[in-house]
Write a structure and sequence with these properties.
four-stranded antiparallel sheet; binds manganese (II) ion; Jelly Rolls; alpha+beta; seven-stranded antiparallel sheet; binds 2-oxoglutaric acid; 4 helices
Length: 200
Amino acid sequence: MDLFEDAAASTLSAIPIEDGQLAFQQRLLLDLSPEEIFRRLRDETDWRAEQIQVWGKLHWQPRLSAWHGEARYRYSGKTFDPQPFTPLQLHIKQAVEQATGCRFNSVLLNYYRDERDSMGFHADDERELGPEPAIASVSFGAPRTFILKHRTRPQTIKLALGDGCLLLMAGTLQQHWTHGINKERAARGPRINLTFRLIL
Ligand SMILES: O=C(O)CCC(=O)C(=O)O
Ligand SMILES: [Mn+2]
């Protein structure tokens, strides 16, 4: 990468979208390499397999997760008591707050072990996030395709979320769009995603 490409990769740029706001930065500026952060998050996190209730039935989530920060969180009929932020998470949070100008008090970590792990389509529209939440998503490890589907129009947006990138969802996005990560057919290495949120 030359100096100009480097600067472009480290700038948060708006992605044009109707009914919400989206911004993307290819490389979040951090003191450690994405590889080092991936290794530490993988090894230092107390990963849990969670069961969630969908239409009254319990299912194992096809990924591992952890909830850290300063606030309780409820979703899919479960309450998650947070573990405190780790120094590494606080470092990433500070970089994300600097890049986005938003403040966060919680983070959900998701570990996609291979191509069979996924996240079903959903919106981050829990009441405690407020009507127009800013949610900052940071990814490490293997790239995966993040898919946005409009709730009422036949419109789909696909974004490749690669190692060390930052995606900001804001405005009315959660009201009008759902998002998810599909399984992949071909072999895929592990990926860790962190979504920073402000629980009100
Ligand atoms: O893994 C991702 O990129 C999506 C994560 C997500 O949507 C969430 O944690 O709510
Ligand atoms: Mn989400």
